[in-house]
């Protein structure tokens, strides 16, 4: 692999003190991710009643669906790799979903804000230095914890028996890890492989790994 490319990758991915100033392209792409995710959030909300009924055989298992509203923050963080990216994309997605007419109205923004802070915390705990699978799973897990706390205390889930709330809590975290964390990581790798992320460290890193393999 070219040594100059190696040095560039090391600067982008191993130094927590690396460049953290947002560029115009960061703002644009983060916004696009947020808007696209917001449409998915809205569609996921439309599908939720039917999906929830399929999981009704075990009260609380519907927590497995929570990740469908959590991935925006993790995905945005993995692509932009700047402090605030996870929070920004999750909040934009919540606003778009609310504007499209989600059934939870203004609460969508409240949930989005808390989930975004939690997803952001996942990357912050790793000093904004790990954008690999560990970072994605940590961010997704904390977003799952956030929605689990919110839903089991301030939504219809709070009316369920303790056992069902416990199932929901665990299920939401699992969903955050798998859907928001793992799936977002897979999506970023797939996008990077196409060259769509060449202006970002994620794309350059994938290209460098590909050069090594060759």
Automatic annotation (TrEMBL):
The chain crosses the membrane at residues 21-44, 56-79, 91-113, 133-154, 166-188. It comes from the Bacteria. Keywords: Membrane, Transmembrane, Transmembrane helix. It holds the Pfam family ABC_cobalt. This is Uncharacterized protein. The lineage of its organism: Bacteria, Bacillati, Actinomycetota, Actinomycetes, Micrococcales.
């Amino acid at each position: 692999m070219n040594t100059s490319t190696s040095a560039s990758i090391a600067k982008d991915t191993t130094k927590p003190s690396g460049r953290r100033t947002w560029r115009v392209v960061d703002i644009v792409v983060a916004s696009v991710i947020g808007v696209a995710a917001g449409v998915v959030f809205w569609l996921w909300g439309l599908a939720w009643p039917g999906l929830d009924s399929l999981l009704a055989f075990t009260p609380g298992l519907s927590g497995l669906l929570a990740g469908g509203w959590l991935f925006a923050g993790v995905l945005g963080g993995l692509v932009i790799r700047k402090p605030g990216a996870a929070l920004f994309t999750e909040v934009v997605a919540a606003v778009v979903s609310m504007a499209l007419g989600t059934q939870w109205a203004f609460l969508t923004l409240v949930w989005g804000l808390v989930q975004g802070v939690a997803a952001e915390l996942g990357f912050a705990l790793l000093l904004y230095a790990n954008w690999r699978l560990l970072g994605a799973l940590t961010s997704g897990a904390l977003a799952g914890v956030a929605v689990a706390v919110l839903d089991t205390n301030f939504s219809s889930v709070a009316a369920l028996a303790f056992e069902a709330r416990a199932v929901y809590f665990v299920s939401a975290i699992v969903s955050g890890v798998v859907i928001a964390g793992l799936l977002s990581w897979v999506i970023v790798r797939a996008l990077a492989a196409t060259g769509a992320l060449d202006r970002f460290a994620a794309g350059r890193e994938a290209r460098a790994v590909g050069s090594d393999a060759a």
